[in-house]
Amino acid sequence: MNKTQLTIAGNLTKDPFFTNKEGSKPFCAFTVACNRDVFNKEENKYINLDTTYFEVKAWGRLAENLNSSIKKGQPVVVTGPLHVETYENKDGAVYSNSILHADYVGLDLGKGIAVYEKNSFSQKVENTQPDPATDTSAPFESQIQPTPTEGQSSDGTDNPNFLQKTE
């Protein structure tokens, strides 16, 4: 299915709301204020024309990471599909609301710096190559794979198609 992605940049209006109820995916919601500014040459400063507020929702690991990473006032960039949610209040009036379902969220590094930290539940990739410093089953020299030279393939055999001119 083809989905249209929307990307917004703005500041968090308050700390994110986070919940992790038993039997459901972790959930995070927050609001981003996006200002439309123009530079006024006469006053030599930016003037805010208007502000658009976007409600953002995220689930799963992204929600958990957001809960630990973003705070009120921080500049963020959010990408995801825009969904319209409708609901009916107790008086029977029907309302609709546009919600950005976050696929990706990051800090706006044009306005500050960040330090990346892998979370503890990220899968570790095991190194399947023996460590020459601790592996005594073979001499170190036998563990080194030669780099192919010109005219050889990666397995060391001659490759007649290596760097040949095609017409």
Q: What's the architecture of the domain at 5-107, going by CATH? A: Beta Barrel
Strands in their spatial order, largest beta sheet: 1-3-4-6-5
**The CATH fourth-level homologous superfamily of the domain at 5-107:** Nucleic acid-binding proteins
State mean pLDDT (0 to 100 scale): 79
Determine the fraction of residues in helical runs and give it as a percent range.
under 10%
For the record, what CATH class of the domain at 5-107 applies? Mainly Beta
Question: What string, H for helix and E for strand, traces the elements in order?
Answer: EEEEHEEEH
Broad shape = globular
Please mark out the parts with pLDDT under 50 across 5 or more consecutive residues, or reply none: 123-167
Number of discrete helical segments: 2
Bin the strand percentage. 35-45%
**CATH topology term of the domain at 5-107:** OB fold (Dihydrolipoamide Acetyltransferase, E2P)
The radius of gyration is 26 Å
Count of individual beta strands: 7
**Structural class, from helix and strand content?**
mainly beta
Query: What's the main sheet like?
Result: 5 strands, mixed, barrel
- Between the first and last Cα atoms, what is the distance in angstroms? 41 Å
